[in-house]
Design a protein that fits this description.
alpha+beta, 2 domains, five-stranded antiparallel beta sheet, about 40% helix
Length: about 220
């Protein structure tokens, strides 16, 4: 028998051996196959603190509010009304809105802020800016950054489909108030001031307009 024929016989034998071994593994519940999880196994895993992926907590919500809290239920309802809603992305947008609105108010640039404020908030801001101008006061401010952005409350109206999220901000900025002659009457240049604000944003979920409006400031 030639050497090439012998090699073919050896290779055929190896192939048959591998097929039999593979069939043996696939025909059992051993190896890498994940066993079925019974209902009582799921309960045991939850009690043990293990995450069950299917039907488990939404980390996009529980990373920001307590699981099972009214705030978590409201945020979940917003997601149901608008599947594309994401709490983490909302807070990133709120961070940017905080800087933009705060600095626009400090500069008295109310026209640029109009699309982002409710009528009540806009009117109150206009009154403050007008009172400042009547006294001949101006503000020089520079935004440094945001140290904290946190959800402290959330509500969803099933009838109107309007969602409200109350956010606590801790920001840092420099700010000095000058009189009509340019003299400083409040604050110190380059002194960083920490400022805390609680703002409430609202939006009708499931609409094409992505903008949230600032509808309240303070508690």
């Amino acid at each position: 028998m030639s050497s090439s024929a012998i090699q073919l016989l050896v290779l055929a034998g190896v192939a048959i051996f591998l097929i039999l071994k593979l069939r043996g593994v696939l025909g059992t519940r051993e190896g890498f196959e994940k066993p079925a999880i019974r209902a009582d196994d799921t309960v045991t895993q939850r009690r043990a603190g293990l995450e069950v992926i299917e039907g488990g907590p939404d980390r996009d919500i529980t990373d920001h509010v307590a699981e099972g809290s009214p705030e978590a239920e409201a945020l979940a309802a917003m997601k149901e009304a608008e599947p594309g809603f994401n709490v983490g992305e909302f807070l990133q947008g709120a961070r940017g809105a905080y800087e933009m609105i705060l600095m626009g108010f400090e500069r008295g640039d109310m026209d640029s802020l109009r699309p982002f404020l409710s009528d009540d908030v806009f009117d109150s801001f206009v009154d403050v800016v007008a009172a400042r101008e009547d006294k001949g006061l101006t503000i020089d401010a520079e935004f440094i950054g945001v140290r904290e952005v946190a959800v402290i409350d959330a509500n969803f109206d099933q009838n109107s489909r309007e969602g409200e999220v109350k956010v606590r901000f801790a920001g840092e900025l420099t700010s000095v108030v000058r009189d009509s002659g340019g003299d400083i009457v409040e604050g110190k240049p380059h002194e960083i001031k920490r400022q805390k604000d609680i703002w409430t944003f609202a939006r009708k979920m499931g609409t094409n307009d992505p903008n949230w409006l600032l509808v309240a400031t303070g508690e």
